[in-house]
Amino acid sequence: MSPLTICIIIFVISILLYATDKLPMGVVGLGTLAALILFGCMEEKEALTYFANKNVILLMSMFVVSTGLSRTSLIDKFSDTVTKMTGHSFKRTFFCYIILVEILTSFLNSPLVAFSIVLPLLVSMCEEYDVPPSKVMFPVGLVAIACCCILPFGASIQQTGVYNGFLESYQMGITFKATDFLIGRWPFLIIVPVWAFTMGFKLAPEKSPVAISLVTVSRNEKKPLNRFADIAGVVIFFAVVILFICGDKIGISSWLVCFVGALAIIVCGVLTMKEAVAALPINLAAMLVGALAMAGALSSTGAGTVIGNALASAIGGIQNGYLLGAIFFIIPFLLTQVMQNQAVMGIFVPICLLTCQAIGANPVGLMIMITAGALTAFMTPMATSAIPAIMGAGGYDIKSLVKQGWIQSLVFMVIYILYTMTVMPAF
Asked: pTM of the full predicted structure?
Protein backbone atom coordinates (compact mmCIF):
# COMPACT_ATOMS: atom_id res chain seq x y z
CA MET A 1 0.00 0.00 0.00
CA SER A 2 1.10 3.56 -0.66
CA PRO A 3 2.00 5.90 2.23
CA LEU A 4 -1.12 7.92 1.43
CA THR A 5 -3.38 4.87 1.86
CA ILE A 6 -1.64 3.78 5.06
CA CYS A 7 -1.85 7.32 6.39
CA ILE A 8 -5.60 7.46 5.79
CA ILE A 9 -6.08 4.08 7.52
CA ILE A 10 -4.14 5.28 10.57
CA PHE A 11 -6.20 8.46 10.59
CA VAL A 12 -9.50 6.56 10.52
CA ILE A 13 -8.37 4.26 13.34
CA SER A 14 -7.26 7.22 15.47
CA ILE A 15 -10.62 8.96 14.99
CA LEU A 16 -12.44 5.78 16.03
CA LEU A 17 -10.26 5.50 19.14
CA TYR A 18 -10.94 9.13 20.03
CA ALA A 19 -14.67 8.54 19.55
CA THR A 20 -14.89 5.43 21.73
CA ASP A 21 -13.13 7.03 24.74
CA LYS A 22 -11.61 3.66 25.66
CA LEU A 23 -8.13 5.18 25.92
CA PRO A 24 -6.94 8.57 27.19
CA MET A 25 -6.68 11.16 24.41
CA GLY A 26 -2.96 11.56 25.02
CA VAL A 27 -2.39 7.84 24.57
CA VAL A 28 -4.27 7.88 21.27
CA GLY A 29 -2.25 10.90 20.13
CA LEU A 30 1.12 9.36 20.91
CA GLY A 31 -0.06 6.00 19.54
CA THR A 32 -0.91 7.73 16.28
CA LEU A 33 2.58 9.22 16.16
CA ALA A 34 4.16 5.81 16.79
CA ALA A 35 2.04 4.17 14.07
CA LEU A 36 3.05 6.80 11.52
CA ILE A 37 6.71 6.01 12.23
CA LEU A 38 6.34 2.21 12.32
CA PHE A 39 4.44 2.06 9.02
CA GLY A 40 6.79 4.36 7.16
CA CYS A 41 4.57 7.45 6.86
CA MET A 42 7.03 9.59 8.78
CA GLU A 43 10.72 9.60 9.61
CA GLU A 44 11.76 9.40 13.27
CA LYS A 45 13.60 12.70 13.05
CA GLU A 46 10.51 14.46 11.72
CA ALA A 47 8.29 12.85 14.36
CA LEU A 48 10.48 14.15 17.18
CA THR A 49 10.08 17.73 15.93
CA TYR A 50 6.41 17.67 16.89
CA PHE A 51 7.34 17.47 20.57
CA ALA A 52 9.13 20.80 20.10
CA ASN A 53 6.39 22.29 17.92
CA LYS A 54 5.72 25.91 18.81
CA ASN A 55 1.98 25.24 19.24
CA VAL A 56 2.68 22.52 21.80
CA ILE A 57 5.04 24.77 23.76
CA LEU A 58 2.55 27.62 23.46
CA LEU A 59 -0.27 25.42 24.80
CA MET A 60 1.68 24.21 27.82
CA SER A 61 3.31 27.53 28.66
CA MET A 62 0.14 29.58 28.35
CA PHE A 63 -1.72 27.38 30.76
CA VAL A 64 1.02 27.79 33.36
CA VAL A 65 0.74 31.57 32.90
CA SER A 66 -3.08 31.41 33.09
CA THR A 67 -2.97 29.22 36.20
CA GLY A 68 -0.56 31.71 37.74
CA LEU A 69 -3.02 34.52 37.08
CA SER A 70 -5.82 32.47 38.64
CA ARG A 71 -3.77 32.32 41.87
CA THR A 72 -3.72 36.11 42.17
CA SER A 73 -6.35 38.27 43.81
CA LEU A 74 -7.05 40.06 40.51
CA ILE A 75 -9.28 37.27 39.17
CA ASP A 76 -11.49 37.32 42.25
CA LYS A 77 -11.70 41.13 42.20
CA PHE A 78 -12.42 41.23 38.48
CA SER A 79 -15.04 38.47 38.75
CA ASP A 80 -16.70 40.21 41.69
CA THR A 81 -16.76 43.51 39.76
CA VAL A 82 -18.31 41.89 36.68
CA THR A 83 -20.84 40.08 38.88
CA LYS A 84 -21.90 43.36 40.50
CA MET A 85 -22.02 45.19 37.16
CA THR A 86 -24.24 42.47 35.69
CA GLY A 87 -26.58 42.43 38.69
CA HIS A 88 -25.47 38.94 39.77
CA SER A 89 -26.86 37.54 36.53
CA PHE A 90 -25.15 34.49 35.05
CA LYS A 91 -26.43 35.26 31.56
CA ARG A 92 -25.08 38.81 31.60
CA THR A 93 -21.74 37.67 33.02
CA PHE A 94 -21.48 34.92 30.43
CA PHE A 95 -22.23 37.39 27.64
CA CYS A 96 -19.56 39.80 28.96
CA TYR A 97 -16.92 37.07 28.70
CA ILE A 98 -18.09 36.15 25.20
CA ILE A 99 -17.56 39.76 24.11
CA LEU A 100 -14.18 39.85 25.91
CA VAL A 101 -12.89 36.80 24.03
CA GLU A 102 -14.19 38.27 20.76
CA ILE A 103 -12.16 41.42 21.37
CA LEU A 104 -9.05 39.46 22.36
CA THR A 105 -9.14 37.14 19.34
CA SER A 106 -9.38 40.20 17.09
CA PHE A 107 -6.10 41.62 18.38
CA LEU A 108 -4.15 38.41 19.00
CA ASN A 109 -2.85 36.03 16.34
CA SER A 110 -3.95 32.96 18.27
CA PRO A 111 -7.44 31.80 19.31
CA LEU A 112 -5.64 29.52 21.79
CA VAL A 113 -4.14 32.48 23.63
CA ALA A 114 -7.43 34.41 23.55
CA PHE A 115 -9.21 31.42 25.11
CA SER A 116 -6.41 30.91 27.65
CA ILE A 117 -6.70 34.49 28.86
CA VAL A 118 -10.43 34.18 29.53
CA LEU A 119 -10.24 30.63 30.96
CA PRO A 120 -9.55 31.62 34.62
CA LEU A 121 -12.50 34.01 34.47
CA LEU A 122 -14.76 31.29 33.07
CA VAL A 123 -13.70 28.88 35.82
CA SER A 124 -14.46 31.52 38.44
CA MET A 125 -17.84 32.23 36.81
CA CYS A 126 -18.75 28.54 36.80
CA GLU A 127 -17.94 28.30 40.52
CA GLU A 128 -19.83 31.50 41.33
CA TYR A 129 -23.04 30.42 39.59
CA ASP A 130 -22.66 26.64 39.97
CA VAL A 131 -22.70 26.08 36.19
CA PRO A 132 -20.90 23.05 34.68
CA PRO A 133 -17.81 24.07 32.66
CA SER A 134 -19.12 21.87 29.84
CA LYS A 135 -21.91 24.42 29.26
CA VAL A 136 -19.63 27.38 28.57
CA MET A 137 -16.18 26.31 27.35
CA PHE A 138 -17.15 25.26 23.81
CA PRO A 139 -19.38 28.30 23.13
CA VAL A 140 -16.63 30.68 24.26
CA GLY A 141 -13.97 28.71 22.36
CA LEU A 142 -16.18 28.88 19.27
CA VAL A 143 -16.07 32.69 19.44
CA ALA A 144 -12.27 32.66 19.82
CA ILE A 145 -11.89 30.60 16.63
CA ALA A 146 -14.73 31.81 14.39
CA CYS A 147 -14.25 35.53 15.11
CA CYS A 148 -10.51 35.43 14.48
CA CYS A 149 -9.28 37.24 11.36
CA ILE A 150 -12.30 39.54 10.89
CA LEU A 151 -11.32 42.93 12.27
CA PRO A 152 -8.25 44.43 10.53
CA PHE A 153 -5.83 43.72 13.37
CA GLY A 154 -3.59 40.83 14.47
CA ALA A 155 -4.28 37.71 12.43
CA SER A 156 -5.95 39.68 9.62
CA ILE A 157 -2.80 41.72 9.03
CA GLN A 158 -0.64 38.62 9.11
CA GLN A 159 -2.89 36.72 6.71
CA THR A 160 -3.13 39.71 4.38
CA GLY A 161 0.63 39.59 3.94
CA VAL A 162 0.49 35.88 3.09
CA TYR A 163 -2.30 36.36 0.56
CA ASN A 164 -0.58 39.29 -1.14
CA GLY A 165 2.49 37.11 -1.49
CA PHE A 166 0.38 34.57 -3.39
CA LEU A 167 -1.22 37.28 -5.54
CA GLU A 168 2.20 38.65 -6.51
CA SER A 169 3.57 35.18 -7.26
CA TYR A 170 0.68 34.44 -9.61
CA GLN A 171 0.79 37.95 -11.11
CA MET A 172 -2.90 38.60 -10.47
CA GLY A 173 -2.50 42.38 -10.65
CA ILE A 174 -4.65 43.06 -7.56
CA THR A 175 -3.97 43.68 -3.87
CA PHE A 176 -5.67 42.02 -0.90
CA LYS A 177 -6.41 44.44 1.96
CA ALA A 178 -6.85 43.65 5.65
CA THR A 179 -10.20 45.44 5.51
CA ASP A 180 -11.39 42.87 2.94
CA PHE A 181 -11.77 40.38 5.79
CA LEU A 182 -14.03 42.86 7.59
CA ILE A 183 -16.12 43.54 4.47
CA GLY A 184 -16.55 39.85 3.69
CA ARG A 185 -17.08 38.57 7.25
CA TRP A 186 -18.38 41.39 9.49
CA PRO A 187 -21.86 39.85 10.11
CA PHE A 188 -20.14 37.06 12.05
CA LEU A 189 -18.96 39.54 14.67
CA ILE A 190 -22.65 39.55 15.63
CA ILE A 191 -23.82 36.09 14.51
CA VAL A 192 -21.14 34.05 16.32
CA PRO A 193 -21.49 35.67 19.79
CA VAL A 194 -25.29 35.52 19.57
CA TRP A 195 -25.11 31.85 18.55
CA ALA A 196 -22.66 31.06 21.37
CA PHE A 197 -24.88 32.80 23.91
CA THR A 198 -28.09 31.09 22.77
CA MET A 199 -27.82 27.90 20.73
CA GLY A 200 -24.22 27.24 21.71
CA PHE A 201 -25.12 27.21 25.40
CA LYS A 202 -28.28 25.20 24.72
CA LEU A 203 -26.48 22.49 22.72
CA ALA A 204 -23.58 22.17 25.17
CA PRO A 205 -23.76 19.03 27.38
CA GLU A 206 -24.99 19.36 30.95
CA LYS A 207 -22.21 17.04 32.10
CA SER A 208 -18.67 16.66 30.80
CA PRO A 209 -18.46 13.45 28.71
CA VAL A 210 -14.89 12.86 29.94
CA ALA A 211 -12.90 14.15 32.88
CA ILE A 212 -11.76 17.76 32.74
CA SER A 213 -8.02 17.56 32.23
CA LEU A 214 -6.89 21.11 32.92
CA VAL A 215 -5.79 21.94 36.44
CA THR A 216 -7.21 25.23 37.65
CA VAL A 217 -7.11 26.86 41.07
CA SER A 218 -10.50 26.81 42.76
CA ARG A 219 -11.51 29.98 44.60
CA ASN A 220 -12.25 27.93 47.70
CA GLU A 221 -8.84 26.23 47.58
CA LYS A 222 -6.80 29.34 46.81
CA LYS A 223 -4.18 30.34 49.38
CA PRO A 224 -3.29 34.05 49.49
CA LEU A 225 0.01 34.95 47.85
CA ASN A 226 2.45 37.39 49.36
CA ARG A 227 2.21 40.91 47.95
CA PHE A 228 5.18 40.55 45.60
CA ALA A 229 3.95 37.27 44.08
CA ASP A 230 0.40 38.59 43.78
CA ILE A 231 1.55 41.65 41.83
CA ALA A 232 4.11 39.64 39.85
CA GLY A 233 1.47 37.17 38.63
CA VAL A 234 -0.61 40.01 37.18
CA VAL A 235 2.36 41.87 35.69
CA ILE A 236 3.77 38.72 34.07
CA PHE A 237 0.40 37.81 32.59
CA PHE A 238 -0.20 41.19 30.96
CA ALA A 239 3.44 41.44 29.87
CA VAL A 240 2.99 38.12 28.05
CA VAL A 241 -0.20 39.36 26.38
CA ILE A 242 1.39 42.66 25.27
CA LEU A 243 4.53 40.98 23.97
CA PHE A 244 2.40 38.37 22.24
CA ILE A 245 0.66 41.16 20.33
CA CYS A 246 3.76 43.11 19.34
CA GLY A 247 6.54 40.53 19.74
CA ASP A 248 6.92 39.86 16.02
CA LYS A 249 7.64 43.54 15.42
CA ILE A 250 10.60 43.44 17.79
CA GLY A 251 11.78 39.98 16.80
CA ILE A 252 10.47 37.86 19.70
CA SER A 253 8.58 34.67 18.83
CA SER A 254 5.16 34.12 20.41
CA TRP A 255 6.07 30.72 21.84
CA LEU A 256 9.19 32.16 23.47
CA VAL A 257 7.17 34.94 25.10
CA CYS A 258 4.82 32.40 26.68
CA PHE A 259 7.66 30.05 27.64
CA VAL A 260 9.62 32.78 29.44
CA GLY A 261 6.40 33.96 31.08
CA ALA A 262 5.80 30.45 32.45
CA LEU A 263 9.33 30.37 33.89
CA ALA A 264 8.84 33.82 35.43
CA ILE A 265 5.65 32.62 37.12
CA ILE A 266 7.72 30.00 38.98
CA VAL A 267 10.74 32.21 39.68
CA CYS A 268 8.54 34.92 41.20
CA GLY A 269 6.77 32.44 43.47
CA VAL A 270 3.32 32.75 41.92
CA LEU A 271 3.29 28.96 41.50
CA THR A 272 5.54 26.41 43.11
CA MET A 273 7.34 23.96 40.85
CA LYS A 274 4.84 21.28 41.89
CA GLU A 275 1.88 23.53 41.06
CA ALA A 276 3.40 24.50 37.71
CA VAL A 277 3.96 20.87 36.75
CA ALA A 278 0.38 20.08 37.78
CA ALA A 279 -0.82 22.95 35.56
CA LEU A 280 0.87 21.48 32.48
CA PRO A 281 -1.84 19.92 30.27
CA ILE A 282 0.21 16.78 29.54
CA ASN A 283 -2.72 14.75 28.20
CA LEU A 284 -3.75 17.57 25.87
CA ALA A 285 -0.19 18.22 24.76
CA ALA A 286 0.27 14.53 23.91
CA MET A 287 -2.96 14.58 21.94
CA LEU A 288 -1.84 17.74 20.13
CA VAL A 289 1.53 16.18 19.25
CA GLY A 290 -0.28 13.23 17.65
CA ALA A 291 -2.83 15.51 15.93
CA LEU A 292 -0.10 17.72 14.46
CA ALA A 293 1.85 14.68 13.30
CA MET A 294 -1.27 13.23 11.67
CA ALA A 295 -2.01 16.53 9.95
CA GLY A 296 1.60 16.78 8.80
CA ALA A 297 1.56 13.24 7.42
CA LEU A 298 -1.65 13.87 5.51
CA SER A 299 -0.06 16.97 4.00
CA SER A 300 3.32 15.39 3.19
CA THR A 301 1.77 12.27 1.64
CA GLY A 302 -0.16 14.51 -0.75
CA ALA A 303 -3.75 14.07 0.46
CA GLY A 304 -4.50 17.78 0.24
CA THR A 305 -2.76 18.18 -3.12
CA VAL A 306 -4.61 15.20 -4.62
CA ILE A 307 -7.94 16.66 -3.56
CA GLY A 308 -6.91 20.13 -4.71
CA ASN A 309 -5.83 19.00 -8.17
CA ALA A 310 -9.03 17.04 -8.65
CA LEU A 311 -10.99 20.10 -7.56
CA ALA A 312 -9.16 22.41 -9.96
CA SER A 313 -9.95 20.07 -12.87
CA ALA A 314 -13.58 19.69 -11.86
CA ILE A 315 -14.45 23.38 -11.46
CA GLY A 316 -12.60 24.76 -14.47
CA GLY A 317 -15.78 25.60 -16.36
CA ILE A 318 -18.01 26.88 -13.55
CA GLN A 319 -19.23 30.44 -14.03
CA ASN A 320 -21.57 30.69 -11.02
CA GLY A 321 -20.02 32.73 -8.20
CA TYR A 322 -22.19 31.22 -5.47
CA LEU A 323 -21.32 27.69 -6.55
CA LEU A 324 -17.62 28.57 -6.60
CA GLY A 325 -17.99 30.09 -3.14
CA ALA A 326 -19.64 26.91 -1.86
CA ILE A 327 -16.84 24.76 -3.24
CA PHE A 328 -14.08 26.94 -1.80
CA PHE A 329 -15.79 26.92 1.60
CA ILE A 330 -16.88 23.29 1.90
CA ILE A 331 -13.69 21.54 0.76
CA PRO A 332 -11.36 23.58 3.04
CA PHE A 333 -13.91 23.17 5.85
CA LEU A 334 -13.83 19.38 5.51
CA LEU A 335 -10.06 19.18 5.11
CA THR A 336 -9.44 21.44 8.10
CA GLN A 337 -11.10 18.86 10.32
CA VAL A 338 -8.04 16.65 9.69
CA MET A 339 -5.34 19.19 8.78
CA GLN A 340 -4.11 22.43 10.36
CA ASN A 341 -6.01 25.42 8.98
CA GLN A 342 -2.86 27.21 7.81
CA ALA A 343 -1.86 24.15 5.77
CA VAL A 344 -5.29 24.01 4.14
CA MET A 345 -5.20 27.69 3.25
CA GLY A 346 -1.71 27.22 1.84
CA ILE A 347 -2.98 24.46 -0.45
CA PHE A 348 -6.23 26.05 -1.61
CA VAL A 349 -5.32 29.68 -2.18
CA PRO A 350 -3.00 28.76 -5.11
CA ILE A 351 -5.74 26.50 -6.50
CA CYS A 352 -8.19 29.39 -6.18
CA LEU A 353 -5.86 31.78 -8.01
CA LEU A 354 -5.17 29.33 -10.84
CA THR A 355 -8.89 28.71 -11.24
CA CYS A 356 -9.66 32.44 -11.27
CA GLN A 357 -6.98 33.04 -13.90
CA ALA A 358 -8.52 30.35 -16.10
CA ILE A 359 -12.11 31.60 -15.86
CA GLY A 360 -11.53 35.35 -15.40
CA ALA A 361 -12.92 35.55 -11.86
CA ASN A 362 -12.07 37.94 -9.02
CA PRO A 363 -10.35 35.82 -6.33
CA VAL A 364 -10.79 38.11 -3.29
CA GLY A 365 -14.20 36.83 -2.18
CA LEU A 366 -13.14 33.22 -2.82
CA MET A 367 -9.98 33.70 -0.74
CA ILE A 368 -12.17 34.93 2.10
CA MET A 369 -14.36 31.84 1.67
CA ILE A 370 -11.27 29.63 2.04
CA THR A 371 -10.31 31.51 5.22
CA ALA A 372 -13.84 31.23 6.59
CA GLY A 373 -14.06 27.51 5.82
CA ALA A 374 -10.74 26.87 7.56
CA LEU A 375 -11.90 28.84 10.63
CA THR A 376 -15.25 27.04 10.83
CA ALA A 377 -13.66 23.77 11.92
CA PHE A 378 -14.47 22.79 15.51
CA MET A 379 -15.02 19.04 15.45
CA THR A 380 -11.55 17.46 15.76
CA PRO A 381 -8.32 18.38 17.59
CA MET A 382 -6.43 18.46 14.27
CA ALA A 383 -8.04 21.68 13.02
CA THR A 384 -6.45 24.18 15.39
CA SER A 385 -4.44 24.07 18.61
CA ALA A 386 -7.29 25.84 20.42
CA ILE A 387 -9.53 22.76 20.18
CA PRO A 388 -7.44 20.51 22.52
CA ALA A 389 -7.48 23.33 25.10
CA ILE A 390 -11.25 23.68 24.78
CA MET A 391 -11.67 19.91 25.07
CA GLY A 392 -9.60 19.80 28.24
CA ALA A 393 -11.34 22.79 29.83
CA GLY A 394 -14.85 21.49 29.15
CA GLY A 395 -14.24 17.74 29.37
CA TYR A 396 -15.33 17.12 25.78
CA ASP A 397 -14.68 14.16 23.53
CA ILE A 398 -14.95 14.19 19.73
CA LYS A 399 -18.55 12.97 19.80
CA SER A 400 -19.59 15.93 21.92
CA LEU A 401 -17.68 18.32 19.64
CA VAL A 402 -19.54 16.99 16.61
CA LYS A 403 -22.91 17.23 18.39
CA GLN A 404 -22.23 20.86 19.29
CA GLY A 405 -20.59 21.84 16.02
CA TRP A 406 -22.43 20.35 13.04
CA ILE A 407 -25.57 22.51 13.11
CA GLN A 408 -23.73 25.80 13.45
CA SER A 409 -21.28 24.76 10.74
CA LEU A 410 -24.16 24.32 8.29
CA VAL A 411 -25.77 27.60 9.31
CA PHE A 412 -22.49 29.52 9.06
CA MET A 413 -21.74 27.93 5.67
CA VAL A 414 -25.06 29.04 4.15
CA ILE A 415 -24.70 32.60 5.48
CA TYR A 416 -21.11 32.88 4.24
CA ILE A 417 -21.98 31.68 0.74
CA LEU A 418 -24.97 33.99 0.37
CA TYR A 419 -23.47 37.07 2.01
CA THR A 420 -19.78 37.03 1.07
CA MET A 421 -20.32 36.06 -2.56
CA THR A 422 -22.94 38.83 -2.86
CA VAL A 423 -20.79 41.66 -1.47
CA MET A 424 -17.58 40.32 -3.06
CA PRO A 425 -18.75 38.58 -6.26
CA ALA A 426 -16.43 36.43 -8.32
CA PHE A 427 -17.86 37.81 -11.58
From this structure: 0.75
The alpha carbon torsion through 63, 98, 160, 336 (nearest 10 deg) reads 70
* pLDDT block averages, 10 residues each, the chain of length 427: 82 77 81 91 88 83 82 80 86 93 83 85 89 95 92 79 80 86 95 96 92 62 81 89 75 85 93 86 80 77 64 68 91 80 75 79 93 87 81 88 90 95 93
90-96: list long-range contacts, CB under 8 Å, 24+ apart: 90/125, 90/129, 90/131, 91/197, 93/125, 93/128, 93/129, 94/125, 94/136, 94/197, 94/201, 95/193, 95/197
Residue 382 burial class via C-beta count within 10 angstroms: exposed 0-12, middle 13-18, buried 19 and up: buried
Secondary structure of the chain: what % helix, strand, coil (to 5)? 75, 0, 25
d(CA 352, CA 363): 7
Nearest C-alpha neighbor of 248 from the set 106, 99, 108: 108
